[in-house]
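Board notes (copied after class):
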Amino acid sequence: MKSSSVAIVVAVAVAGLVTALRDRVALQEMLGFGHSGHAATPQFMLMGRVTGPETSPKPQIDVQAIADRLHAATLVPPLPQQGETAGDEAEKSLMVAQAPQQQPTAAQPAKSAQPKVDESALRYFASRGDKARLQAEIARLQALYPNWVPPADPLAVPQSGDRQLEQMWQLYSEGRYAELRKAIADRQASESGWQPPPDLLDRLDVAEARARLVNASDQKQYATVVQIGANTPSLLTCSDIDVLWRVAEAFAKTDRAPRARDAYVYILKNCTNPQERVATIQKASALLSYAVMQDLLALERPDGNGGREFDGMRNELARRFVAAGNDDPDLAVAPAYLSIVQRLAETERLASDSLLLGWYQLRRENYPDAERWFRAAREKEDSAIASQGLALALIAEKKPQEAEDVMYKWRGASKDATATYLAATANLMALQPPANLSEEVLSRIASEIIAQKYVPTAQQFGWFARTLNQPQTAARWFETALRWKPDDEPSAYGLAITRQQLRDRAGVAEIQRLWGGRSERIAQLGEATNQRTTTPSLPAPPGQMVPQGPTAASPEIVRAPPERIESANPPAVTEVVRQPAMQTVTVRRGARQLRGCTTTVNAQLLDPETALSRGWCLMDINRPMEAAKAFDAALASSNRKTREDAAYGQSLAFLRAGLSNNAAVAATKAPQTQQRAAELQIAILADRALAAFDAKRYREALIYLDQRAQLRQEPIDLMVLRGYAYLNMKMYGDAERIFTAAASTGNKDANRGLADLKASTHPDTVD
């Protein structure tokens, strides 16, 4: 087995040296090395310009005839010493001192300048019957010495008797490079004037470079891989395809995809091994984009059997490409690949193939097709991911009742599954006319909403209860939504009109006092006016709580009477919100007076003043993303005041949608008054602090809180947030100071923070 392994190493090394020597100039150009006499900065890759070595007819040896005569030969070279192998001997023989020039024979035409060539390796390979390495050695010598003519009978080549040199070659073949370096130094010290063969030193340098490159690749030190490849062009040949693969991967991992593409193109244009070419495509497809892969696949060759060489992996490529389309909704995958995956889904009946097609269609808003494929996936294997995809398609098709039923089983499978179920409940409760839901469904939705503290559905329960003429229940749901999210203006408005219906004038007055400067419709509640809103609603300060009335009990489950009582409450408006990895749907309830903006209109077709009014109208019914587009159209106005209001409104819209970075950008689109700029900055900093805390970036959250505190006194709820940031960073002293100060106001969350702090610092004392 050792002999076979060494034989493979020798064959690869010999073929690599041959290819490198034949195309050295091209490789130097590829790596950015010129001929100006100084070392240039390595520029490795113009691989597309590198072509395979040109071959010219050379005298051929009848290798088979020589092998046949080996069994009858009586003169056989001495066997290797104990511990050596045939592969070792072959490697050592490559660098034996040059043999004397042979006289030309009939089979060897005389040459005017016949070089001195070390042919000892030819004899060794011939004596062992190793036809592959014999031919590789002949090719190597022909590349080194173009005028050299191979001997007709390699068995007649004289043997070498330098056993020390043979030991050195054995160390080389075993990869013991440090020991080889020492052996060379020891012999030079003991034998004055002795020099190792240049070929041995060259091979040793290349072998050590290859070992360093492989180690760097295994350690994911990709910059080092590229540098070694640039400095050692003789490694970059088809004979050592693994090195080319590693260099290509290094380019891809260091964000140099064009160079990685060049490396793979070089392989496909110059390397001929069928298995290696297929493996090249497999490796490239895991690293390169869909568009680049099409360039590589264009270099495919016929397989000689009427097909193409990559036909065997076409199915997996199609699956990979469709999956790439799932990640990028703007990527248009060729119909041929979609057809392949569709055929696989229908024939192999794997749920994974149907899921690929379902997500691909969902990302492109082809909801009926997405629904079809997700249903097919669930028929094959009912899973959370298949149910989630189907639910999202159903929500988009305005079938939230079925979506809720599909997702209820899987609501706790993952965070995404929970979000999808909650979105389905919000859309279901927002249907107009209201859906005819059983008490069992209402009960399970209510239980899940309370457990998750999900504001949109809690708010929708309030509107749903009003539709059923259950104002007390509606009030409790609105109060609950405001406890979970104090700045939820639609819930505050719903609570205000419900308390008005219950003739709770004190409660209405308190809400108007808190929201009058931030919501015109709440401030004007009860006034007989049809004036269009022209002043935007500011985002509520996170710490401002809406009074909850005499009680703050958990909301009651809405009871559906046998016959529905229709009322004049506003219809639900659903809005699809794009999330980074998937599509989810959230719902907001609008005002009682919809003011003519419920229909879908392209805001870019409106004049700036109309677009501005429409933007505020959409904000009133809590459709912030549509409002942002309307404000964007209003920014085109030539009127400075209109542009100022539009920029301000767009900032508020993005804040309401949770896009604080977009809000900050929008605020700069037109000059703002000092008061507005301060209000926006405070709201943006608070939103960023909350987002950073939710993402567990506690230090970043503290930075935003500090910045906000410089502009306005920190409310209690943000003090509690600060305390928990300190607690999570294990800054227990600071956490205790903050929680104690907040708890002195009677804040329950601060008291809970003190309890959590005690549990973290003294877990043994906690029951």
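Comment from the instructor: The chain has a mean pLDDT of 74. The first helix runs from residue 2 to 22.
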